[in-house]
Specification:
Elements: E1 6-12, E2 15-23, E3 63-68, E4 71-75, H1 77-83, E5 90-98, E6 107-115, H2 121-134, E7 136-144, E8 147-156, E9 159-165, H3 174-177, H4 189-201, H5 214-227, H6 247-260, H7 266-277, H8 279-296
Parallel strand pairs: 1-5
Antiparallel strand pairs: 1-2, 2-6, 3-4, 5-7, 6-9, 7-8, 8-9
Length: 326
């Protein structure tokens, strides 16, 4: 059995539920090391004092915050711990909300939340079933490894699932990042109708097992081929962007191919890979699971201006990439 990475109590009102936190996802990419080209010499990294050139032990390293004009405020771990939220073992529910109210951009990484002990399974099950019945998710905060996290806890079948969330000020305003976002476009009624039909023709139920990380599959085949001195088959080139003047023809050809089942798979494969990593798709799957749970016994604006997949760039990273693996 997996080892819990955090344990404590989930509290709502005066009720406390002992819980344990477990990783829900894992990486599946091959492991690479770095070598000097043309040799079998591994590349190693050292912590070097830039003034003296001497290697520095990890225990002798402290952190410095840049305060401008080449000046730094130096902080050791004891000082950082003195203002941290503390070694808290409490996960406090702030409020309950509808899942649809949470923009998928805020979701970061998923964890399983299990009961703290056999003696507390009834309290755990009560909270789980009550949340499923109400269709609500709990917004809570907790401290793990010296860092505070915001989280959404939801019922999913027989367990509670925790998703770490980005704070509002961690979500960028897209208009500050992208210069050429289009406004209303002059699409013709025919183009809009055909595009809508194509979306409908390519629609279907969300089945996670239908999607694979085909790039990693190809990398593994590449490794096996080189290991056995076999020929390497390169991937095909990416398709060219659709010319605006041929948009109608491209839409019609896509519709014809989809209806006849003769799609070359490129568009479908690209859509599948996007869906497999899309936080929005993951949220739909979560809602479906919650609805099934309710049957068995359950958006804020993107907020670019006020302020996240959970592709989710890929999960498998840390709960917050800047905060280290959890």
């Amino acid at each position: 059995m997996a080892r819990a990475i955090w344990s404590g109590v989930l509290s709502f009102g005066l009720v406390t539920v002992p819980v344990r936190l477990y990783s829900a996802t894992e990486d599946h990419e091959p492991t690479f090391h770095q070598f000097e080209q043309g040799t079998s010499d591994r590349i190693r990294y050292q912590r070097i004092n830039e003034r003296t050139g001497a290697e520095v032990a990890y225990s002798d390293i402290v952190r410095g915050a840049d305060v401008g004009r080449g000046r730094y405020v130096i902080l050791d771990q004891k000082e950082l711990d003195s203002v941290a939220p503390g070694q808290s073992r409490s996960m406090a529910v702030i409020r309950f909300v509808d899942l649809d109210e949470i923009d998928p951009i805020y979701f970061n990484k998923t964890y399983f939340l299990g009961p703290g002990s056999d003696e507390t399974r009834k309290t755990y099950a009560l909270l789980r079933d009550a949340m499923a019945e109400s269709g609500k998710v709990a917004i809570a905060s907790f401290v793990m490894r010296g860092t505070e996290y915001l989280a959404a806890v939801r019922a999913d079948g027989d367990l509670l699932v925790l998703e770490t969330l980005f704070f509002a000020d961690e979500v960028r305003n897209p208009r500050n990042q992208i210069e050429n976002l289009p406004g209303r476009i002059g699409a013709s009624p025919q183009e809009m109708r055909m595009a809508t039909q194509l979306i409908g023709a390519m629609s279907g139920p969300w089945k996670p097992a239908d999607y694979r990380d085909t790039y990693t599959d190809r990398v593994n085949k590449l490794i096996a081929a080189k290991k056995n001195n076999k020929e390497i088959t390169p991937a095909s080139e990416a398709p060219q962007p659709t010319n605006v003047t041929s948009l109608t023809d491209a839409l019609q050809a896509s519709l014809d191919a989809t209806k006849s089942g003769r799609s070359d798979g490129r568009a479908r494969g690209a859509a599948g890979r996007t869906a497999a990593r899309s936080p929005a798709s993951a949220r739909k799957g979560s809602r479906a699971a919650s609805q099934k749970t309710s049957a068995r016994s359950g958006g804020s604006s993107r907020s670019g201006s006020s302020s996240r997949s959970g592709s989710s760039s890929r999960s498998g990273s840390s709960p917050k990439s800047r905060k280290g693996a959890a």
